[in-house]
């Protein structure tokens, strides 16, 4: 399915299905110019995604020999198909920080460390082993790192007369970016600002405080003059500044909820705390929801616990093999 977003500049959205995934779809944006096309993000390395993407590019007559492919961040639903659609002439651009972090993932430095921490925070070890076999973050990612041109925060590139600024917005990933079409005041927000779901903010290895990074990045985007905001998933039907305020309020409430849970009972681990929070899950209980959803939820809980520890609101201590928390 292709949706025309605007006439001038000429921007389209290729809806890439994400089967059996709560995100539902990826919005792959294509901007056509006389100097070539811009393509933003790709989809999972999965046949359904590839079929939709290639059909959309073909319908829009996109010549990848004369295209710039911009990747907003390292997640598999954005990077999975890069090598499937690029040619030797395609210019691939990605933020320096996330491109470097992807290198650590392919050197096997990230997911083992991430899962080791989850186990120390109470996540069942057996479930960690199970989710590795079914987690789309892992199984639908590129098989090797793709060649790309790293772009630094605040740097611009041009397609004809159109200038695009790469905006560093760490939080959702360590080097997450948005892409700003400067004169036209259009912001491709990637997963940084989503409009009917909240972006997952997790406890990335080697990152001190992912949630703090994210909240700072929301304020940064709010400082831009944006006439049109285009998110990577689902809809974009409300004011971006109002949505930024909603996202900040969501995390403030989540921090308060977690603090109250910790305050009510000392020495709970992160997995136990996560099970007491309200999540957008179809299942009735924490234990019956899919392992990968508990994996994501525990990681997000940890980013909030890290924030509260850094703010000196709670204390983290070791209890045997596990870390537990108590109110300050």
From TrEMBL:
<dbReference type="Pfam" id="PF00753">
    <property type="entry name" value="Lactamase_B"/>
</dbReference>
<feature type="domain" description="Metallo-beta-lactamase">
    <location>
        <begin position="25"/>
        <end position="233"/>
    </location>
</feature>
<dbReference type="InterPro" id="IPR001279">
    <property type="entry name" value="Metallo-B-lactamas"/>
</dbReference>
<dbReference type="InterPro" id="IPR036388">
    <property type="entry name" value="WH-like_DNA-bd_sf"/>
</dbReference>
<protein>
    <submittedName>
        <fullName>MBL fold metallo-hydrolase</fullName>
    </submittedName>
</protein>
<dbReference type="InterPro" id="IPR050662">
    <property type="entry name" value="Sec-metab_biosynth-thioest"/>
</dbReference>
<dbReference type="InterPro" id="IPR036866">
    <property type="entry name" value="RibonucZ/Hydroxyglut_hydro"/>
</dbReference>
């Amino acid at each position: 399915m292709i949706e025309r977003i605007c006439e001038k500049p000429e921007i389209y959205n290729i809806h890439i299905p994400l089967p059996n995934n709560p995100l539902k779809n990826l919005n792959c944006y294509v901007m056509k110019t006389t100097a070539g096309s811009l393509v933003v993000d790709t989809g999972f390395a999965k046949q359904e995604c590839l079929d939709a993407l290639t059909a959309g590019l073909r319908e829009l007559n996109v010549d990848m020999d004369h295209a710039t492919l911009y990747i907003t961040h390292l997640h598999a639903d954005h990077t999975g198909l890069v090598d499937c659609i690029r040619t030797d002439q395609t210019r691939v651009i990605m933020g320096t920080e996330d491109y470097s972090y992807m290198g650590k993932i392919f050197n096997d430095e990230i997911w083992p460390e991430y899962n080791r921490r989850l186990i120390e925070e109470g996540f069942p070890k057996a479930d960690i082993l199970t989710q590795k076999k079914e987690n789309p973050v892992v199984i639908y990612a590129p098989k090797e790192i793709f060649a790309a041109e790293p772009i630094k925060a605040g740097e611009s590139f041009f397609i004809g007369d159109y200038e695009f600024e790469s905006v560093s917005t760490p939080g959702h990933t360590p080097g997450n970016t948005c892409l700003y079409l400067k004169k036209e005041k259009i912001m491709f927000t990637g997963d940084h600002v989503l409009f009917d779901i909240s972006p997952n903010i997790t406890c990335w290895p080697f990152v001190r405080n992912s949630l703090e990074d994210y909240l700072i990045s929301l304020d940064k985007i709010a400082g831009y003059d944006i006439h049109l905001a285009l998110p990577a998933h689902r809809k974009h039907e409300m004011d971006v500044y109002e949505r930024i305020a909603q996202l900040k309020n969501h995390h403030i409430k989540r921090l308060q909820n977690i603090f109250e849970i910790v305050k009510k009972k000392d020495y709970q681990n992160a997995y136990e705390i996560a099970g007491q929070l309200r999540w957008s899950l179809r299942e009735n209980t924490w234990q019956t929801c899919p392992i990968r959803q508990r994996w994501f939820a525990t990681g997000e809980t940890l980013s909030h616990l890290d924030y509260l520890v850094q703010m000196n609101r709670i204390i983290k201590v070791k209890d045997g093999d596990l870390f537990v928390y108590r109110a300050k």
